Amino acid sequence: MKTIFACIAVLGIQGGKAGEIVGIVWQTPQEVLAAIDPGKTPDTPTVWHSPRGPVVMHGDLFGDGRHLALVGTEGTSWAIAKDGAWEMAGGLDVPPAWVPPGKTTQDPEYGQYYRCKPPQVPFVLKDLDGDRIPEVLVAFSNDGFSTGYAVARRKDSGIELTSISSQRGEPEWIGGYLVVTTSFWGGRWSGFGNTYYKWKGDTAVKMAEWLELGGADKPERTIAVRHRDDGKGQAFEIVEEGNGSWNVRTCVLKGTDETEDEKDFARIRLTPIPEKPGHELQWNAAPANDALVFELITGIPGEVMKFPYGKDENYDFRTAVASIRLEVEGSEEAKAILKRVSR
Questions:
Q1: Do 21 and 157 lie in a common domain?
Q2: Quick one: 84 and 39 in the same domain?
Q3: Residues 165 and 176 in one domain
Q4: 302 CB neighbour count, 10 Å cutoff
Q5: Is it the case that residue 97 has pLDDT exceeding 80?
Q6: Do 152 and 280 belong to one domain?
Q7: pLDDT tens digits for 232-261?
Q8: Is residue 18's pLDDT more than 80?
């Protein structure tokens, strides 16, 4: 059953019956690697698309001198070149998603991707912890509506899948934080959520979650969770009231987006300072305000905030907030928690 479900995840179901799966009959990873010379390590990691469907990325993936290969079939496997031959070394429990060159999501075998556009190559090498050794990202289809990426790392002499995955797009390494999109949906109302991690050794520790909600039948609001050193989190509901004012309430988070036991905590006021240098950048006030509120609530510098639809290339957090006056109204506890961390 595991193999059947893996094929369904990659190829899709025509007519809703497993017996009507349309597409290729997958080769084994060993059969795929027979076409690649294990004794010739390319100068940079190289991608090869088999005419029968599978995809391979191979080379010195981690810069440690080993010739490794990632193989995408109905699952993800990896192998190491030893003594002139490929030795299968393990697998990653991720059915990879990709649409090869020359194919589209309109082709029968890739037609299960309803809204997302999987990449041509399901493997990405990207440094997500600043140690100059790349992590391995494996693209997967998130229910056919977005392309997510699972994160694997070099572990001793192998590759190990972590518990971290992005539900939309590639994870990012921003200002010393690993930023992962952990929720994203749309329709009559929409929301996106990012989770922010700090690496402690080989472990990614959750520091904050940031979820923005809104839509035709729901008021716009933000839910944030700030995690403490003891692993416990404090949830906040943040509602923008207009005129540079935000109301902050503590709450208990239920599920993804519902809250209960809301209690008034503080009010944040942000007003422009015309006489400050940088006033000419007041057109940047909206993202700067959002990022400053993010900083106060999460304790993470505002320049780390990942905006759902990107930001203007001229936007600079530190320059923009130089012309913003900050006031926090509330108890001494609230003022001690909601404070600037960037300067």
A1: yes
A2: yes
A3: no
A4: 24
A5: yes
A6: no
A7: 889 999 999 988 899 999 999 887 677 889
A8: no
Range of the domain at 180: 172-343
46 - beta bridge partners?
Answer: 58
Based on the structure, what is the number of domains in the chain?
Answer: 2
Q: Which residues contact 276 (CB under 8 A, 6 or more apart)?
A: 322, 323
Dist. CA 190–CA 300, nearest whole Å: 24
Quote the CA–CA distance of 284 and 319 in Å, as a whole number: 9
- Which residue type occupies 244? G
| Residue 112 and residue 203 share a domain | no
Q: What strand order describes the sheet that includes 76-82?
A: 46-49, 55-59, 68-72, 76-82, 85-92
Q: Given 120, 144, 170, which residue is the final one in a domain?
A: 170
Q: What is the dihedral of CA 173, 169, 180, 48, to 10 degrees?
A: -60
Instruction: Give 138's contacts (C-beta < 8 A, 6+ positions apart).
Output: 76, 92, 94, 96, 122, 123, 149, 150, 152
d(C-alpha 81, C-alpha 337), whole Å: 53
Residues 207 and 331 in one domain: yes
Look at residue 268 in the predicted model and tell me its pLDDT.
97
Question: CA 310 to CA 329: how far, in whole Å?
Answer: 31
Query: Of the candidates 146, 170, 194, which is a domain's last residue?
Result: 170
- Please check whether residues 219 and 263 belong to one and the same domain: yes
326-339 pLDDT, tens digit per residue, is 999 999 999 999 99
Q: What is the mean pLDDT of residues 54-83?
A: 96
Most confident of 80-89, 307-316, 318-327: 80-89
Using DSSP's 3-state secondary structure scheme, residue 20 falls into: helix
Q: Which residue bears the tokens 């004794």?
A: 39
Instruction: Please state the three-class secondary structure of 94-157 as a single string.
Output: CCCCCCCCCCCCCCHHHCCCCCCCCCCCCEEEECCCCCCCCEEEEEEEECCCEEEEEEEEEECC
The per-residue pLDDT of the chain, averaged, comes to 84
